[in-house]
Hints:
Layout: E1 2-5, E2 10-13, H1 19-27, E3 31-32, H2 44-49, H3 57-60, E4 67-73, E5 79-82, H4 88-93, E6 103-110, E7 112-113, E8 117-125, H5 128-140, E9 147-154, E10 157-166, E11 173-174, H6 185-195, E12 199-204, H7 205-209, H8 219-223, H9 230-236, H10 244-249, H11 253-262, E13 264-271, H12 275-285, E14 291-297, E15 311-312, E16 318-319, E17 321-329, H13 338-351, E18 355-356, H14 366-372, H15 376-384, H16 388-391, H17 395-399, H18 401-404, H19 407-416
Parallel strand pairs: 11-12
Antiparallel strand pairs: 1-2, 2-6, 3-7, 4-5, 4-6, 8-10, 8-12, 9-10, 9-14, 13-17, 13-18, 14-17, 15-16
The chain binds flavin-adenine dinucleotide.
Residues 15, 37-39, 42-43, 45-47, 49-50, 52-53, 98-99, 103-104, 216, 244, 357, 359 line the site of flavin-adenine dinucleotide.
Amino acid sequence: MLEIDEHRGIVRVEPLANMGQISRSLISRGWTLPVVPELDSLTVGGLIMGFGVETSSHKYGLFQHICEAFEIVTAEGKLLKCTPSENPDLFYQIPWSHGTLGFLVAAELKIIPVKKYVRLHYRPVYTLDSMVSVFEHTSRDTKNNDFVEGLVYGCDRAVIMVGNFVDAVGPGSLNAIGRWYKPWFYKHVQTYLERREPGVEYVPVRDYYHRHTRGYFWAMEEIIPFGNHPIFRALLGWAVPPRIELLKYTETQTTQRLREKFHVIQDMLMPIRHLKQSIEYFDAHFRLYPLWLSPMAIKDNGGQRGFVHPFRTEDGLVDEMYVDIGAYGTPGKKGFDNAVALPLLGKFVIEHQGYQALYARTFMSREGFRMMFDHAGYDLLRERLPYCRQAFDEVYDKVSSKGRGSPVEMRRMEKAG
Ligand SMILES: Cc1cc2nc3c(=O)[nH]c(=O)nc-3n(C[C@H](O)[C@H](O)[C@H](O)COP(=O)(O)OP(=O)(O)OC[C@H]3O[C@@H](n4cnc5c(N)ncnc54)[C@H](O)[C@@H]3O)c2cc1C
């Protein structure tokens, strides 16, 4: 269900509406969400209760920042509308709460006019310093750059992309990257690195929004190593990507154990000023490439409460600009083990005022988790809302490996100390 109010510039949706459905429906009517998280299957409910980001987030913030209103049903069965002026404490505390304050039943999201294409400029870089400075400079230039993305192929090489909405195809080629026979996007981007020269393409806007869907960024290559081959594409390209639920259903105990030990899926939201240290950290402790870079503003909202806040310097200055560093795959570092690497990573993120996306596995202690995410407003609300504490677990107990107590992981963590 989707109702557009063009006059107010908002769309009202139910929480199970997903990004594929919304982008299809809005774009055909000349509109788009300002932030369209990549994968078709991500839902409005999940993106609000968890988190969502896209390469336009340097301008518009996280998915939660394009929300104008929530309707939730609380543990006592009350329907509450929450906006910045009506139940504001709840409005700012719902994002990241993972359904532990109530059930979301509807949301109002901002919409903006859309254009037909994204003009995409690819710029290869060959040192860590140029990678960091080009990425930071383009991310902070929110007036001139509608989209900014980096794909890092090694500690000293990356392709930084800048996109802008345009109405027509200009000099450069048209590339409908979403077609079933097209190469995975990250493979296509890599060709600019090999050619050692920048380039421009015009990508139909919906193809741009969902450019990583077919390859699940690069995760699909581990699942179907021959998935980019023309013969596979000709015969079965239409069937990709398979549903994550199906992959989990077909997993055996052994592959689950191997995945838990060696496989990494993590998104770290780091202050952009710590981008260089973060890439160096990943190189030293994971050696896992490609890495995904998506700039994102964590909005201050006049210092409102909520789980996440922008970076504050010792002088009290606020810097909203962050970067999502996405690491997906099997690290190349010798002797790598999640039970050792992930607690250290949590420590690194806390020390640098960053946040970890909660869909990923976290081995943080409850104290560490509370250090990373501000629980002040959340604790007050859980006290105040009738039956909330009896009905819903805390976020930590819902999302963390310790809270969930995966027996395999717990044993290995105990052994690893
Ligand atoms: C394979 C994979 C790829 C990803 N890719 C991206 C990406 O490209 N861009 C990006 O921004 N993020 C990405 N993410 C992160 C993703 O955005 C978050 O994990 C998001 O929370 C998932 O949304 P979902 O619709 O799958 O929600 P779910 O995982 O189903 O739900 C997330 C949480 O929200 C709660 N919840 C959901 N709906 C409601 C509701 N109506 N009321 C109360 N609670 C609710 C659930 O109980 C759960 O705790 C990815 C995650 C995975 C696993």
